[in-house]
Design brief:
Blueprint lengths: L2 H14 L1 H6 L2 E3 L4 E2 L6 E4 L5 E6 L4 E6 L1 E5 L6 E6 L7 E7 L4 E2 L2 E3 L5 H13 L8 H4 L12 E3 L2 E6 L13 E2 H17 L1 H5 L14 H15 L10 E3 L17 E2 L4 H18 L4 H20 L22 H15 L2 H10 L15 H11 L5 H23 L16 H17 L6 H12 L24 H5 L21 H6 L17 H4 L3 H17 L2
Parallel strand pairs: 1-9, 2-10, 11-15
Antiparallel strand pairs: 1-3, 3-7, 4-5, 4-8, 6-7, 8-10, 11-12, 13-14, 14-15
Helix pairs in contact: 3-19, 5-7, 5-8, 5-19, 7-8, 8-9, 8-10, 9-10, 10-11, 10-12, 12-13, 13-14, 14-15, 14-19, 15-19
Length: about 550
């Protein structure tokens, strides 16, 4: 049994009595709650016959029979399901069962995950680089200006570059183009598909109340940095980091020399893609900025045309994140798709169709495989140009959603995760699978996948084998100790809210994680909320971004 699972039972024993702890009779729910529409389930890991949904005064408002699911392979639990989908009244509730099990309190209501969405969106603000975070907007998590000194070109130390800005990528202070482009794509498509959810959002960032919706104002911070990473000939540098990761210090204390690392064809293609995507979205708000983005995208595109070979070089002496890939075929496809959508230029359409002759996953949503992002853009905006091709993409997403549905149906917790999905960054896989369900609903017209997308968010937020919310500050039993330098160094017990943990990893690769996870622990339980366990508990921008997309989709679907 993991320490996280033990914590659940201990906490519930304090609240509900020793008998509950001795039976280990917890009831797992989404610790935030459930939308009024759709499926609502809780999971018990001990035998019961009946359950009751109670309001906060202890009054029974709904009762039902517990059904036995059976042994869930990836959690090792013998699972029982309490289904209260038929109850839609808004309020605060908890569940009890006839075996003495009691759940945490949770809410049922419209837009019940709005605060989660706001916090996960604002998390990007807390990761801003090249500036300070003031108390008005960051509260207790404010800090001084960081990483503003000129960077040195790795291959030529006589060249000095201004690459300040953007977002710290993860638990370290590096900034990486392919990772940033992927996160931006998730966020930009979230806005494009669910604008009303974001148009009314106010997350208290310096730009709030301006021309741009907050999410687009925040994305602009990263886009501005990406523009700085482009070379004069259109090629794009792969990353901006120091030679080694910093110690666990605050960002303004990291004063080691910053380097700009060599160009890569993946970075150049992803840059072209996301700048073209952003140019289309920002056009109705800031035409001049949109034109600047499109010009940068076409400059990168020309470099790709002139340089058709794959290129990537990570100097061995640089020990920061590699973000390497074996091919740039999917990256180029994404670039051509976005450029065609943004410009209507048939040249890009032809390049896109030629790129499809190569083999790569057409529903993958990044960061290491981005073919699905190119297909998404084409389905949304260019389907009428080649309806047959658009239908091919739709079928691919529908087929993948049905495959994931089968996996989710075989899991007692409803997670669309096979064993290999529980790897470094499993929360990203969980949320990318939610995105596939959402896309299959919104674009392919298969409404049945709403419940499956929502279930993945429920799993992230506590409806899992540890009863644990993998989003900091969301739910009583949530991540508090991420592998992240500012949260470890700021001297504040509370964690920055809205950060998505990497999650369970069946093959923990760092020493701290290996010590914490016992041999033969089921994949869903291979987790510890420990700052040293980076293969379990790091955060990244591209783990937050699909979670933002998913939450926005669910909130939008209620209206």
């Amino acid at each position: 049994e993991s320490s996280a699972a033990s914590d659940v039972y201990k906490r519930q024993a304090l609240r509900f009595g020793k008998e509950v702890f001795m039976k280990k009779a917890a009831i797992f729910t989404d610790l935030i709650g459930y939308e009024t529409i759709g499926r609502k389930t809780a999971v018990l890991t001990s035998q019961a016959q009946d359950f009751t949904l109670n309001d906060i005064n202890g009054n029974s408002v709904f009762a039902g029979k517990v059904t036995h699911f059976g042994v869930d392979k990836l959690s090792g639990d013998d699972v029982y399901i309490a289904d209260f989908s038929g109850f839609e009244d808004e309020g605060e509730y908890y569940i009890t069962a006839d075996n003495g099990a009691v759940s945490e309190r949770f809410f049922i209501g419209k837009s019940v995950h709005s605060k989660v969405l706001d916090d996960m969106t604002k998390a990007f603000y807390y990761l801003r680089c090249g500036c300070g975070l003031d108390e008005k907007h960051a509260g207790k998590f404010s800090h001084g200006r960081c990483h503003t000194e000129p960077a040195m070109l790795w291959d030529d130390h006589s060249v000095s570059l201004d690459v300040s800005g953007g977002w710290h990528d993860a638990g370290d202070y590096g900034r990486y183009v392919t990772a940033g482009a992927c996160a931006l794509a998730h966020l930009l498509y979230a806005y494009e598909m669910f604008p009303r959810t974001f148009d009314r959002q106010n997350i208290n960032i310096p730009e709030s109340g301006g021309v741009l919706p907050d999410i687009l104002a925040e994305c602009k911070v990263e886009l501005d940095w990406l523009l700085k990473m482009q070379r004069a000939d259109g090629a794009v540098y792969h990353k901006a980091t120091t030679a080694h990761h910093a110690a666990f210090i605050m960002p303004e204390e990291d004063t080691a020399q910053m380097y700009v690392l060599p160009i890569s064809s993946m970075a150049t293609a992803d840059h072209a893609a996301v700048c073209a995507l952003a140019a289309r979205i920002y056009k109705k708000f800031e035409e001049e900025y949109s034109a600047k983005l499109l010009s940068a995208a076409e400059k990168s595109a020309q470099w790709l045309i002139n340089n058709p070979d794959f290129y990537f070089d990570n100097p061995k002496e640089c020990k920061t994140g590699i973000y390497g890939e074996d091919s740039d075929k999917d990256n180029r496809f994404w670039a051509w798709s976005e450029l065609f959508t943004a410009t209507g230029n048939e040249k890009y359409h032809d390049l896109m169709k030629t790129a499809l002759k190569d083999s790569f996953p057409i529903t993958a949503l990044g960061y290491g495989s981005v073919g699905g992002l190119g297909a998404l853009g084409y389905m949304l905006y260019s389907g009428s140009k080649d309806a047959a091709l658009s239908d091919t993409f739709k079928k691919a997403f529908s087929d993948e959603a049905h495959r994931l549905k089968t996996i989710a149906d075989s899991c007692g917790y409803g997670a669309a995760m096979d064993e290999k999905s529980y790897c470094w960054g499993s929360s990203m896989n969980l949320m990318k699978h939610a995105m596939i369900f959402a896309i299959s609903d919104k674009i392919c017209g298969e409404r049945k996948f709403y419940d499956y997308a929502a279930q993945q968010l429920h799993v992230l937020l506590g409806l899992n084998a540890l009863g644990f919310s993998y989003v900091s500050g969301e739910g009583e039993n949530s991540m508090k100790n991420p592998h992240m330098r500012p949260t470890a160094a700021d001297g504040i017990d509370e964690c920055i809210p809205g950060l998505v943990s990497g999650g369970p990893n069946r093959y923990p690769s760092d020493e701290a994680a290996r010590k914490l996870i016992k041999k033969n622990t089921p994949p869903m339980k291979c987790y510890a909320d420990d700052v040293g366990a980076y293969s379990l508990n790091e955060i990244t921008i591209y783990w937050n971004s699909p979670a933002v997309f998913t939450a926005a989709y669910i909130i939008d679907s209620e209206e």
